[in-house]
Amino acid sequence: MIGLILFAVLMTSACVYHFREPDGFAAMLPDWVPLRLEIIYATAILELVIAILILIPATRGWTGLFTALYLVLIFPANLYAAAKGIPAPGSESASYTALWLRAAAQPLLIWWVLWCTRYPSRDTSLKGPPKRNLA
């Protein structure tokens, strides 16, 4: 449960950070991407929604799967920022090591959300109906 709460706090913090440093996050997207600031604001709202839904047992499993997909979809932005040396939002300079570590941490975040939102074994709502014992 503590991992779940910490992940929700992380997503809430990410939401706040996106609203505080929207230009820095927009810089992590290539120039050819349209509506970069709007995308950043939308992702901020999405991260807050994720933080809320992940704490509700009835929505936790699907939210975890959706969050893992979301983290996969934003992974290219982290790779782009690392490859181009774009500083973290709110920073003036970039540490290439830190930028690549951030990108390398993305799979860990995906594992974390999948782990802390997994259904207990007795819950079959995602797995289908219970199997019958024909013995």
From TrEMBL:
<keyword id="KW-0472">Membrane</keyword>
<feature type="transmembrane region" description="Helical">
    <location>
        <begin position="95"/>
        <end position="115"/>
    </location>
</feature>
<feature type="transmembrane region" description="Helical">
    <location>
        <begin position="39"/>
        <end position="58"/>
    </location>
</feature>
<keyword id="KW-0812">Transmembrane</keyword>
<protein>
    <recommendedName>
        <fullName>DoxX family protein</fullName>
    </recommendedName>
</protein>
<feature type="transmembrane region" description="Helical">
    <location>
        <begin position="65"/>
        <end position="83"/>
    </location>
</feature>
<keyword id="KW-1133">Transmembrane helix</keyword>
